[in-house]
Design goal:
There is one protein chain. This protein has 2 domains: about 80 residues, Beta-grasp domain (Ubiquitin-like (UB roll), Roll), CATH 3.10.20.30; about 70 residues, [2Fe-2S]-binding domain (DNA polymerase, domain 1), CATH 1.10.150. The protein has 5 helices and 5 strands. It is α+β, with helices and mostly antiparallel strands and about 160 residues long. The chain has a 5-stranded mixed beta sheet with strand order 2-1-5-3-4, sandwiched between helices. Strand 3 and strand 4 form a beta hairpin. The model has no long low-confidence stretch (mean pLDDT about 95). The chain binds FE2/S2 (inorganic) cluster (FES) (2 copies).
Amino acid sequence: MNITASINGTSETFTVRADTTLMDVLREELHLLGTKEGCREGECGACTVLIDGKPVDSCIYPAAAVQGRNVETIEGMVDLLAEQVKSAMVEFGGVQCGYCTPGIVLSLTALLRRFPEADEALVRESLAGNLCRCTGYSQIVDAALAAAEANRGRP
Ligand code: FES
Ligand code: FES
């Protein structure tokens, strides 16, 4: 079947089977390789993308279900808030091997769009689906809180 969706603001049409995952369309057809392939079981969050602003695991998300919807990948994360999140991740040491980083940037950006006043508990909750084997998370949480502050215009 043919599916049309907005991918990072551009209308794209692709052909899928019922069992085609969104991750495979993004990586193999659209060559958006920032969406990382990890467990393929919905456990690690490396493949996180936003659908209508909400984080999903694209490895278990049927591509057919994005018909008419708005998909954002790490390649589309260029608004000011996303840039603040990315900069803070680098500044606070939240990026080590980097494999989890695209998914984490998407989860944090989605959180701070909805909850600019997010506190540590909410940040940690938003990261529950994103596995990071390197950092121990505290640097990522610090980065998120710094990005939230920057986004609110408070140094
Ligand atoms: S690759 Fe999708 S959750 Fe791990
Ligand atoms: S930085 Fe390596 S898995 Fe997170």
